[in-house]
Each structure stands twice: as structure tokens, then as C-alpha cells.
Design brief:
Blueprint lengths: L2 E6 L1 H4 L2 H16 L3 E6 L11 H11 L5 H25 L4 E4 L6 E3 L8 E4 L2 H8 L3 E5 L2 E3 L5 E3 L4 H13 L3 E6 L20 E3 H9 L7 H10 L3 E5 L7 E4 L16 E14 L3 H13 L7 E4 L2 E7 L3 H10 L4 E13 L9 H10 L7 E4 L3 E7 L3 H11 L6
Parallel strand pairs: 1-2, 1-9, 2-6, 3-6, 9-11, 10-12
Antiparallel strand pairs: 4-5, 7-8, 11-12, 13-15, 13-16, 14-15, 16-18, 17-18
Helix pairs in contact: 3-4, 6-8, 7-8, 11-12
């Protein structure tokens, strides 16, 4: 039995015309000899009646405190509604589709409501449906504890559902359908001539996702990577071939042989802190205190008498309270952006950082901080420099020619 997992995001199932396009993709898979397992997200985005964020806003506007168990019950509703609607849409086309909850799909998790980890998958019911020629339409983002309590996986959880089912069912591939043609060389809302990448490695997509792109959840990539199954990211509304994510993507003929960078990613809303310190023990105490209050550190540079780091903007107020309590001397810059160049092929190649700095300084963009790894170099800039910085680096590395 040849199985393909087809996951459809919220915009793909929000309106009837989009669902018709999604159903066409599912039917085409059947006609190509595949048994399709469909995974769906909640319909639409914040403000749409059945979107997960809308449900969360509704309950939080009504009640100050909501128990995590009850919140998971509420958040699971959006995906269950989507799978019922999609199953009925397929039935209207003459295909025997069955709506399946995360629990019915056999996805067992721990008891960490709101951000549960998957312990195991027992896909017996899905296998039974496939063996009888039916199309399972699975509610993404959710599972249950062994005691039967509904749990959710956190943001991007439907991608995780698709990946974990691919692994359990030994599917040939995962198709992630969204509202873009694939992974882009930069955010097309910033770079009008950003191009679609035809291939990309697991490691690169992990870096791109970690640095701000929201096309696919990193946890889903990690699952696919360990099983070696390719992910294909496609547009529900077009026939674009999309982007294939795999372990060793081949270079396309139209890619330049010297192309080092795959994509430019960016994250906004960062705050940079510079703190005067008195040695390593003092620095460690501050970091421990921040971590104990749930504040995650991103870029960090440590020197004998100070340390510089960035955090998410929403944690700024809490960080200031901690530093005031510790009587620290500090300064901070709000509304910063982290701009990252990603590419496996720059590993061991000298001069990439100098090109980045040259491109940014040529446009009078101040670099506040940097960090790097084998496949990623990141620069922190002021928020107002976000767009010109992305444009400058996209141009510097000729990414429109991908």
C-alpha cells in the first residue's frame, strides 16, 4: 500500500472554493495510485469564527483563568470541525471519507496540556480505514493521554500530526499545503522578486523555520528527518511543484555553482540588553534568574565585564523587573530584528560575514550584534532597518536567480 500524508493549513480549508481545490489534490493522489491520509488545521486565522486563536480569545475575554485541560478541549474543536467538513466535502464527490480525531488516530501523549509531547502512535484505526478503501481525514494538533484526556501540541501542531503519522504508517512522502508556492528565498511581502526554492535540505529548513519563517513547524521537520521521508511544500491554489525537503537535495541547473546562501529569514520584535557584570558567577546568576522566569535568551555574547543578549519583545517588562531587583547597570534597545542568512554550502567558506557586513553598512544599517553557526549567520538590526536589511542581503547573494 502506497501512502501519502496530505496536510492542509487553515487557509486551505476556510472557504468552500479553497476546500474544492484541496479535495482536487486528494483525488489526484488517489488517481496516481496513492492511499491518502489527510490532516487538517482549524479553519482560517484569528478573527475567523472557527480559528484556534478566535476560540482562545473568546474564552480568555470571558474568564480570567482557564484550566489547561479545559483549554485543550476548546482548542481541539477547531480541527475537529475542519475534519468533519473536509470529510463531508469528499463524500459529496463520491469518496468514502471518515473524520478522525487525534485520539481515534491513536496519537498518545504525555499530560503536558497545551504543549504535549507525543509518546507513541497506534494507527490501527487508520490502517483499518485504508485497507477498506476509505480516506481518513485526521484532526491535526491533538492527541490524548493514555487516560483519554485530550491534549494539544502547541503552535504548528498539525504539521507535527502529519509527520508523526507519516512515520507510523511508513508513508512515501508528506505534502504540506499552504497559501504559498513553497519555501522562498525571502519573505515575498518584503522582496518582490523572491524566488521559490525547488529543493532544500532538512537542516536548512530547520534553520529557516527557527529564524522566523512559519511555513512548517521545526518539530515536523525533525520527525521527517529521522525517518528520511521527503516533505513537499505546495500551494493549495496552484499547480506549482513546490519545494522538496530532503536529506541531500540536488542542485538545479539554474542555480549558480557559486550560490552559497539558500534563503534570508527574519524575526521582528526583539529586545537587546547590555548588562554590566562582575565575572562569570554573576553572569550565570542573572541567566539562571531569567531562565527561571521563563525568559529565553537568543543571541548572546559574553565578555569579562558585561554580556549582551536578545530576548522576545513581550518578555521585556519582566526582564526589566528582574534586573532592577538585582540592581544591575544595564541598557536596552527595543524593537530590534534578527536577520539571518541560511545556507549549508557556506560551511567552511571564508568571507561570508564580511560580505554581509559590507552590504549592510553600504546602506547605513547599524549591526548591533551577530551570531553564527556552520549554516547560519545572524545580524541584529533596529526594527526600522528590517526591510532594507533583508533587501540588501537578498541582492548581495543574488537570490533572485535561484
Amino acid at each position: 500500500m502506497r501512502i501519502v500524508i496530505q496536510k492542509f493549513g487553515g487557509t486551505s480549508v476556510a472557504e468552500s472554493k479553497n476546500r474544492e481545490m484541496a479535495v482536487r489534490k486528494i483525488i489526484n493522489a488517489r488517481k496516481s495510485g496513492f492511499q491518502s491520509v489527510v490532516v487538517v488545521s482549524a479553519m482560517g486565522r484569528r478573527g475567523d469564527p472557527y480559528a484556534t486563536d478566535t476560540l482562545i480569545d473568546f474564552i480568555r475575554n470571558s474568564y480570567r483563568d482557564v484550566h489547561p485541560r479545559e483549554m485543550d478541549l476548546l482548542m481541539s474543536v477547531g480541527e475537529i470541525l475542519s475534519c468533519v467538513v473536509m470529510a463531508n466535502t469528499l463524500q459529496g464527490k463520491g469518496y468514502d471519507a471518515v473524520a478522525v480525531t487525534g485520539r481515534q488516530a491513536g496519537i498518545l501523549t504525555d499530560e503536558n496540556h497545551g504543549n504535549a509531547d507525543i509518546l507513541e502512535v497506534r494507527p490501527d484505526f487508520i490502517v483499518h480505514l485504508l485497507e477498506h478503501g476509505k480516506i481518513p481525514v485526521v484532526a491535526g494538533f491533538q492527541g490524548s493521554t493514555k487516560a483519554g484526556q485530550i491534549t494539544t501540541f502547541g503552535r504548528g501542531g498539525s504539521d507535527t500530526t502529519a509527520a508523526i503519522l507519516e512515520e507510523a504508517l511508513k508513508a512515501e512522502s508528506i505534502e504540506i499545503y499552504t497559501d504559498v508556492d513553497g519555501i522562498m528565498t525571502a519573505d515575498p511581502r518584503i522582496v518582490s522578486d523572491a524566488s521559490t526554492l525547488r529543493t532544500i535540505s532538512y537542516s536548512e529548513i530547520l534553520q529557516i523555520a527557527d529564524q522566523g519563517a512559519k511555513v512548517i513547524h521545526p518539530k515536523a521537520v525533525e520527525i521527517a528527518m529521522r525517518s528520511g521521508i521527503p516533505i513537499i511544500i505546495k500551494n493549495t491554489m496552484t499547480n506549482s511543484p513546490g519545494t522538496v525537503v530532503s536529506s541531500r537535495p540536488g542542485r538545479k541547473k539554474h542555480q549558480k555553482s557559486g550560490q552559497l546562501i539558500t534563503s534570508i529569514a527574519h524575526m521582528t520584535g526583539r529586545t537587546q540588553f547590555t548588562i554590566e557584570t562582575e565575572g562569570m558567577e554573576d553572569q550565570n546568576n542573572t541567566l539562571v534568574c531569567l531562565a527561571g522566569n521563563g525568559i529565553s535568551i537568543d543571541i548572546i555574547n559574553i565578555f569579562p565585564d558585561q554580556m549582551v543578549f536578545t530576548i522576545e519583545g513581550h518578555a521585556t517588562k519582566k526582564a526589566l523587573e528582574i534586573l532592577e531587583k538585582q540592581k544591575k547597570h544595564y541598557r536596552f534597545i527595543e524593537n530590534c530584528s534578527k536577520i539571518s542568512v541560511v545556507g549549508d554550502r557556506m560551511r567552511g567558506i571564508p568571507g561570508v560575514m564580511s560580505r554581509i557586513i559590507r552590504a549592510l553598512t553600504a546602506r547605513q544599517i547599524e549591526v548591533l550584534q551577530t551570531s553564527d553557526s556552520h549554516s547560519t549567520i545572524s545580524c541584529l538590526v533596529r526594527g526600522e532597518d528590517t526591510v532594507p536589511a533583508v533587501l540588501a542581503l537578498h541582492e548581495e547573494f543574488n537570490l533572485s536567480t535561484q
